[in-house]
Amino acid sequence: MITWKDVINFSVNGNPTPDTRVEKTDTEWQAQLTPEQFRITRQKGTERPHSGALCSTHDAGKYNCVCCNTPLFDSTIKFNSGTGWPSFTQPIKENAIKYEKDTAFGMLRVEVMCNTCDAHLGHVFPDGPEPSGLRYCINSESMQLEKE
Ligand SMILES: [Zn+2]
């Protein structure tokens, strides 16, 4: 299980190696994504809270990266955080997610990205439920639900 200590360690000392890499130009991503998906995943945007289609869904399945379709989270680790963004307590596997320190807006936060294609997903905070204590706060627009 990944804990806040691991998150800090990844963001300071380097991330786990992904199974595979997907690299495309902005033009290629733009052709494949909606404008809102492009703004969030490739330009580190944030959707308005409670606006995301996946915020209140609890269907069983996997949450895949909207850019490269790599599984990132699954419905068993999703929880209702009340924040207005889909929230998870763990990644689907340790090397699915990439962590980077983000000092934008004068705050120290940890940005989470798809480790396969570097899509911006959201942030992770150390105020989630036990046992991991993590809250991955993720934009709906950066994921697609593959229902079981
Ligand atoms: Zn991806």
From TrEMBL:
Gene3D superfamilies assigned to the protein according to its UniProt record, in alphabetical order: Peptide methionine sulfoxide reductase
Enzyme type, top EC level: oxidoreductase
One MF term in the entry's GO annotations: peptide-methionine (R)-S-oxide reductase activity
Keyword Oxidoreductase tagged: yes
Every MsrB domain range: 26-148
UniProt keyword annotation of Oxidoreductase present: yes
EC number from the UniProt entry: 1.8.4.12
Catalytic activity reported: L-methionyl-[protein] + [thioredoxin]-disulfide + H2O = L-methionyl-(R)-S-oxide-[protein] + [thioredoxin]-dithiol
UniProt keyword list: Oxidoreductase
Name this polypeptide is given: peptide-methionine (R)-S-oxide reductase
Primary gene name: msrB
